[in-house]
Structures are given as C-alpha cells and as structure tokens.
Amino acid sequence: MFRNYLNTAFQAIWKHKGFSLINISGLAIGLTSCLLLLLYINYHLNFDRHFKNIDNIYLIESNQVGDGKIFTFPVTPEPMAKAIIAQVPGVERAIRNVDAKALLMYNGNTFKKSIIYADAGYFFMFSFRFINGNAEKSLLQPNSIVITENTAKTIFGNSNPIGKIIKFNKTNDLIVSGVISNIPLNSSQQFDCVIPWSFYETINSGIKNAGWSSNICQTYVELKNGVDFAKADKIIRQMMNKNQKYFKAEDMLFPLAKSHLYTEFENGKPKGGLIDQIYLFIYLAICLLLVACANFINLSTARSAERAKEIGVRKVIGASKTNLIIQFITESFLLTLVSLVLALVLTWQMLPVFNNLLNISLIIPFSNIYFFGSIILGFIIISLLTGCYPAFYLSSIKPVKVLKGLFKGGKRSMSVRKVFVVIQFTFAIFLITATICIYKQIKYVQNRSLGFDTSNMVEINLEDNLVNKVDLLTNELKKANFITAASPLSQSLTTTYWNTWGFTWPGKLINQRTLIEQMVIGYDFIKTSGAKLLAGREFSSTYPIDTAGKTLLINEAAVKVMNLKQPIGAIIRSGNDAFTVVGVLNDLNMGSPYQKVSPTVFYCSVVNNVLAMRTNPNKNIGECVKGINTILKKINPSYQPDVKFVDKGIERKYKDQQILGKLASLFGSLAIFISCLGLLGLVTYAAEQRTKEIGIRKVLGASVLKLTYLLSFDFLSLVVLAFIIAIPISIIALNKWLINFEYRIALSWWIFIFAGLIASAIALLTISYKAIKTSMINPVKSLRSE
Amino acid sequence: MEPNMIKITNLEKFYRTEEVETIALNKLSMEVKKGEFVAIMGPSGCGKSTLLNILGMLDDPDNGSYLFNDIEVAHFNERKRADLRKHNIGFVFQSFNLIDELTVFENVELPLIYTGVPTAERKKRVEAVLDKMQIMHRRNHYPQQLSGGQQQRVAISRAVVNNPKLILADEPTGNLDSSNGNEVMELLTDLNEQGTTIVMVTHSEHDARYSHRIIRLLDGQTVLENIMI
Question: Is the pLDDT of residue B228 over 80?
C-alpha cells in the first residue's frame, strides 16, 4: 500500500513539473531563510553554553543611582569576591577578573596580546579544555601564564610551550603553565592569555588597597547546586552599602547564561539587548516559514479542479477518505523532503555569504544529533502543516460532482487562498517598509555631525616607550609632511569607557549624582580632531597651570548639566583635586551615535594611550599611512605599526542596525519572491480555469487589455488589501523600534506608498505575464479545447 | 427465481440551486435480480446517471429505500458506503476515467490495493484479468498511449479485477467507434454470463439489446420496461 502511495506521489510530482518546481523552490527558499535565521539564533542562545557549570555561574552587576535613574554596570570593587566567599552560604567559588592588553616577548619577537588577570579558580569556573597543564595548578604561581592554542602557535610554533619563559611588558618573566584549546567565538570570555590575579597585584600596588569604593574589576560567582539563589542574591545586594559610604549601590547576581542576551537594564532589572533582536529573528523565521507553507497549501488546493477526476475515480473504485488523506500527505512529505534537502544545500552554499554579511562564523552542525533531531521534527511538522489542509480538502471532494463535471474547485478553498495571499503580501510589504525605515534611520544618524572631523584622521596606540617619544614622532611626521597635527589621547575618539559620579561644581545639589564622561587630551587637540572651541582656550604647553594638570575643558552638555552661567574660570572638583575650566568644546559624539552626547570633561596630559593624527589633506591617504608606518617602525622597532582609521571605527558603531537592515532587505526580498511564486501559481490555474470564459469574451469583442485587466484585477486587489493592512502594522512596529533612538527619523507617508508600489509592481509583473498570455489565445482554440 | 440484488422503492432525489429545485428521481421503484443484465434508457436529464450513482452508492437519495442484497443502504454514511462499494461494485464509465499518472497495470491494481489484497496475489489477479481482456502487452503503458477501445478494456479490467457482484456501466460505448463498442458489449455479456449482475445506462438501442431487460425512464420515473427475448 505504502509503495503505491509513494509511487503515485512520485508520478504526481513528476507529471506536473512546473507546479512542483514552483512549490519546491518556494518552500526550499522559505526553509533556507528559516534555517539561516535559526542558526543565527542558535549561535546566540548557546553563548557560553560550552561551560559545564554555566547554569550556576553569575556575573555581578552593580546598580548605581544617578541622574534620577538606576545605571547598571558589570563592575565591582576588588574585595567583593573574597567577601562573597566568606559571607554568602552555598558559594562554590568567586573570582575577580580584569582584561587588558600586554606585550609579550619571546626569543626577541614581540606580540601584543589580550590578557585576563584572574583568580586561581578561573579555570574551575570556566571549563576550558587543557591541552597541556591542568586547571588545578596552572594559576597557582604568581608568575605563571596560561595561553590559548593559537597563541602558543604564534609564539612558540610547534615546540612545547610548557615551562618556557615569556617576558611580560619587557619587565617580568612569566612561565607558561598551561595551554588551552582555542576559545569558541560564542564565548563571553575572549583572551589570548590568562595571568594570575596575584601577579596583577604585584605590578599594580594600588589594587590591593583599592577598597570598596573603587569599581575596578568584574566578579564572577559560582553557586553550589541547589543553593537558594534569592538568599545569596539578598546578601550580595547589601554588601556595597554596608562596606562603603561614598555612593549608594546595590550589586546583584546576574546569570552568565543571560548576560550576552541582556545588556540593557532599567531600574536594575534586565530590559533587553540582543534578546530583542533574537525575538525579532524568531518572528521573522516563523513568518517566512508560514509564507512558504501558505504558498504550498495555496498551490495544492488551487490544483483541486485538475486533480478532482483522479480523486473521484479513486473513491469510486474503493479508496476511503483515509486512503486519500494518506496519499496527499505522502505527496506533501515527499515535496517537503526534496525542498528540505535543497534548503540544506542552499544553506550550506549561502552560509559564507550570510557569515560575511553579518560578520559572524556560523556552521551547519552536521555532527550534532540535536540538529538532526530538530531537522527531522521540523520536517514532520512542515509536512503535516502543508499537507493536512490540502489532504482534508481534496479528499472530501464528492466523486459524483466530479463525474458529472460539476466540480470547479470550491469557493471556500478560494477564499482561504485569497486570505493566504493577503497575509503573504502584508508580511512582504511590512518588511519592505521596515527595510526603508532602517536604512533611512542609519543614514539620518550617519549624516548627523559627530562634532569632529573623521576624514583624514588616524590613530595609533602609544605602545611602551612610544609614550615618551610622542614629540619626536609628531615632529618627524610633520616634517615629512605626512600629518598636519597630532594630539595624544587617553582613548580613541570612537569610544567612551571612563566615567565617574565624583565631580562637584558650584551650585551642585547635595543629592545630585551625575555621571560624567572623562577623557585626557594633549595640546593641539582642536586642530587634530576638528572639534570647535565655543569659549575660552584649548590646552597649551605655554600655560604652567595646564602642564600641572589643574585645568579642564568641558563640553556643551557638561555646561548644561552643571548649569554654569560663566563656565570659563569655574572650579570643578573631583575628590580633593580642584580644576579650573579654561575652555568649552562642542559636543563630541564618541559613544553611541544614536544617543545624546553625555557631559564630558577633558583633562590635559601628554602621557596617554593613543595618538590621534590628522593626515596631510594634500597627500594621498595611503601614502601618509605608509609614511607613518615607516617612521613608527624606526622610532619604536619592537612593535608592528597598527594605524587605524577613525571613520572605520565610527562605521562599526552602525553594525547592529546595519545587520538588521541587511536582514530585513534580504528576507523581505525572499518573502516577496516566495509570495510571487505563489501568485504565479494561482494566476496560472485561474487563467486555465477561465480559458473558456476568455474565449467567449473575446468572440464578443473584448480587447486583450480589458481581458488582462479582468484576469489581473482579482489578484491585484488582494495586494492592495495587503497594503492597507500592512500600513498600521508597519506604523506601530516601526515606531516601537524607533523609540529606542534619541535621534530618530519621523515615519513619512512616502515610505508606505513606495513599499506598496514596489509590491504592487512586482505582483503586477508576475500576474500580467500569464494574464496577457491567456488573453492572447485564439478563441477558436480555447473554445474548442472545452 | 433469483433473489433481488437491488430493490429500490419510492426513491427520490432533488437537486437544489438557490432558486430552482429539480426533481431527478421521482418516487422511482425497481428491482434487479442477481445475475441479471439490465439496460436503463431515456432522454438526457431523465435521471439515468443519478440513478446509477445512487445504485453505486456514490450518492445518497433524499427519500425512499434502497436494499442492496437485502441490506438497507439508503442512509449509510460515506465510510460504510465506500466499504460496501469496494467489495461489491465495479464501475465502467463512458470517458473511461483512468488515472493518467498510473500505468495500465497500476490502474487495474488500484481496487485490489484499496481492499488490502497482498502484493503477490494482486500481481496474479491483475495479470489474469489483463490477459483475459487481451491487453496484457500494454501493461506498462500509460492511458494516453492507448486507443479508446483499449482504454475501455483497461477500465473494464479494473472494474472486474475485484470480482464484483455488480457492474454499473454508464454509457460504456459512448466514446467508442462501433467495432470497439461491440467488443466492449461482448465483454460485458461474457461477464454477465459468468454470473456478474450488470446495470448499464445507455442511449444506444443497439447496446441495450445485449441486456435482458430495458428500463425506460422519463422525468425520474419508470415509463416502460421491455423484457428482451
């Protein structure tokens, strides 16, 4: 019996190749889109899942009150880990952790690597696989270092690194005590080396005494199995206010498994972050799959008139309804199977493009049993989803009607098909509006002035001794005409990472707590950055008060928040230090380009981490960079020169929204394509069914244009209806998305009209091809064929 | 005296559209004995096909009684009707109604599949009936590759492969030339002589002469019965 079902299904698919091709390709494209999205979602949902104890590991997040709201940061004071071990019952371990960059030397070669200083329990908490050495002993000695497989290869080639001595920042010797396998990309712990916390304390004497009021590290806590989380969390929440009086803070346990997905907090509670994008992609995957399934169902039921004879005959000669249902579901299973195999091949082929588009590295986990389980489960669900309605609908056709030639395809199924077409196009039009809106928003933000000039601007890190040779470097580069100005900075102009609640100023309210961003800049900052001086002067080596570090520049936002009527000359204090404001700069947007610029103060110092340079605009930028590299290599030969373009750094800030835009346009196009495939199928069958009517109308004098209109109108009106439904959905959803940005566009009516026109034009193109073809058939032929 | 295979009493069937009600069968009563060959004749729209569909349990009557082998089937549900039909009745149509996607062999095999006959037994029975109908050499061809006469032979093969007690034929020669038509009528006669009851709807007086009895219908009622000698 089953062989017969399979055989019939093969025959039916093969005989109607055109239909099968439309059906299979629509479903395969839908499945491919869905698979790509699910791989992406799975990648993020499994972040840090490779750690065995992940469900017991917590990151301490600190809730601090300021500016009338609660800010949440993953920062803690140094004594917290020890206090947690001592005071919180059920703690397996608590570790401190700080990340940094370090210069490692071996055999005369220098390597700049990302390092983590961590307590000895680090490798017990995070179960990295040791290739050499072990988790128990590798961080016990203060002068030990654990490196990753890649780092081992880079530094030591193929020789065994264990026991070898690496020079740390040219000063200390570290002995390699362990090699761990490379870190997967979906790990929150990213580093090249891990060095014991005890070593960190020896090179930074202040750390040990930093106390409870300095947030200097991250703290991770691992609870024992079955420990009451709420009880532990309650004790930890009280620690900050018990141990220091400088500011109010409530530190809390936050599950590490969630920390990748939830990065935004509101009132100390997780509000969102990447999880919002994940939900969006889950909806997108489901919708794309449903669009493809709706196509499948539409095309299958549209063929009911064509298949009615076969169904009638089968019933007459003894087929029961169940027999027919099984037969049609077998067909659906077969078509889904072909589509699924095709989708897997397509996914495999498209994955590099998709990875490149999103700048990630997804792989199809062919060796993962859960992946196969999910594929099989998905296959069964989709087959049933696409097969059931057509199977029940087709199997209920009355043989008498078919044999009498009365069956023309049910009105009910036509309505269902129309509803599906409307839903498909509503979704497609929504995605088109979303694409336009996202790109418009990105463009809008990109076009806003950052407050400084990013063109012809490059930065280098001031490694090692270069800090003391900044003047020499700047002079040589100027002399060679590669740059016109340079200024040392505490951090790149593309980042904000250093802030404090600790400033006071004249007129500050007693309970007022305001988070102020900080940056250290050198002389010649304005010429280098292109920032504007709104009042006063910039720092200069001719003012002893500047060289003594007693002056500040502040930005417009700071003037506003401090409510300074006369900013120049105002005294601003931080702890026991007093600074005089000597100048006001415009607002420089160094943080999120979507948000308002924070109040910022600029200190003066030439001892910094980064050197910003404005290249000579009269010279080719490539030539300037080449020149900078040559002179850098001469002055600081131990380091490989690494010149970074500031505008590239700014570009990276649009990454998340650009990903969203790229995905919306990619999957919007696919949704339109799948919907049009379905529309083409429906129009084809409608045209076939109306061949006689067209013939009669033609004999009676109807023109090709009128007939094309007649055939197209029904379907085009569905697209118009979809457009009307899509407008309010798009307005609500896009406004909800836009509200996340302080700087945002207003939704203009043309976005919707444009999206509607695109969808209608593509639909019209699809429909009219078949409609014109049918209208041009010689009526003698169409009437005879009846 | 053979017992009745079919006994219908005061059978009524109406077709309704939104505005019009048409009476297809009007209190029709008739009997068909086991082993009988009955032809039903009448002008277009007199209710012949409706009657055949009800006799074949493809359709149910609005009123009246239908005893099939002394079982009242007039109000059987679809599942029961399908079950009774597949074990007892074979159909032959004017337009053959073969399934285009299946070969000759597969078309004939289909009723056996639905009655759950094992594969080996199916093969034996299909080959036997194709042989008998002299169409064995075309077993792997598709319906479109056959002449009308050959297609009707396949359709008859399919109708008889399950050894039905009753064959219902709806203008079986309507799409055939006279030579092929005669061959089909000979086949039906042979089947009848081997014990199969046959009810045939026809417009052809020539074909009707092959039967034992002609029932003439007009406006859904019996107007005349001719016993053939």
Answer: no
> Which residues of chain B neighbour A4 with C-beta distances below 8 Å?
106, 109-110, 113
Q: Could you report the per-residue pLDDT of A239-276, keeping only the tens digit for each?
A: 998 988 878 889 999 999 999 999 889 888 998 888 98
Residue A68: exposure state from Cβ atoms within 10 A (0-12, 13-18, ≥19):
exposed
What tokens does B24 get?
């297809």
pTM score, two decimals?
0.77
**Amino acid A407: pLDDT:** 63
Q: So what's the pLDDT on residue A519?
A: 92
Closest by CA position to B84, among listed B95, B75, B93: B75
Of A320, A255, A297, A325, whose CA–CA distance to A61 is shortest? A255
Q: Helices A655-689 and A17-45, interaxial angle, to 10°?
A: 160
- A749-775 helix and A691-699 helix, angle to the nearest 10 degrees: 80
Only one residue has tokens 């499945």, namely: A31
Residue in B78, B36, B42 with CA at minimum distance from that of residue B192: B36
Radius of gyration, CA atoms only, chain A: 34
Cβ-based contacts of A8 with chain B (< 8 Å): 101-102
CA distance A665 to A31: 17
Q: Identify the residue among B95, B98, B99 best suited for mutation to test binding to A, counting A beta carbons within 10 A and taking the highest.
A: B99
Residue A47, exposed/middle/buried by CB under 10 A (0-12, 13-18, 19+)?
buried
- Pull the structure tokens for residue A485: 């100005």
What is the side-by-side strand order in the sheet with B71-72? B21-33, B4-16, B63-68, B71-72
d(CA A489, CA A605): 8
Nearest residue in chain A measured CA to CA from B56: A316
For residue range B58-115, what is the model confidence (pLDDT) as tens digits?
A: 888 999 999 999 999 988 887 888 888 888 999 888 888 888 878 899 899 988 888 8
**Tokens 């299909």 belong to residue:** B126
Q: With contacts defined as CB-CB under 8 Å, which chain A residues touch B79? A: 320-321
Cα–Cα distance, A529 to A452 (Å, whole number): 6
CA distance A340 to A332: 12
Residue A35 contacts residue A350 (beta carbons within 8 Å)? no
Write the single-letter amino acid at A634: K
Name the burial class of residue A652, with classes exposed (0-12), middle (13-18) and buried (19+) by CB atoms within 10 angstroms of its CB: exposed
Flag if B86 and A317 touch (Cβ within 8 Å). yes
Q: Do A403 and B53 touch (CB under 8 A)?
A: yes
Determine the average pLDDT of the residues in B14-42. Answer: 88
Burial of A200 per CB tally in 10 Å (0-12, 13-18, 19+): buried
Question: Using an 8 Å Cβ cutoff, are A582 and A537 in contact?
Answer: yes
> Rounded to an integer, what distance in angstroms lies between the CA atom of residue A463 and that of residue A453?
25
The Cα–Cα gap between A562 and A63 comes to: 23
- Cα B163 → chain centroid: 13
Question: What's the gap between Cα A153 and its chain centre?
Answer: 31
Which comes out higher in pLDDT, residue B121 or A653? B121
| Cβ–Cβ below 8 Å for A314 and B97 | no
Angle at CA of residue A656, ends A651 and A662, nearest 5°: 95
Asked if residue B203 has pLDDT above 50, the reply is yes
DSSP character string of A330-365? HHHHHHHHHHHHHHHHHHHHHHHHHHHHHT------
CA nearest to B84 within chain A: A318
pLDDT at A184: 87
B110 contacts A317? CB cut-off 8 A: yes
A622-625 contacts, C-beta under 8 A, 24 or more apart: A623/A482, A624/A458, A624/A482, A624/A483, A625/A458
Residues of chain A with pLDDT under 70: 1, 305, 404-414, 780-786
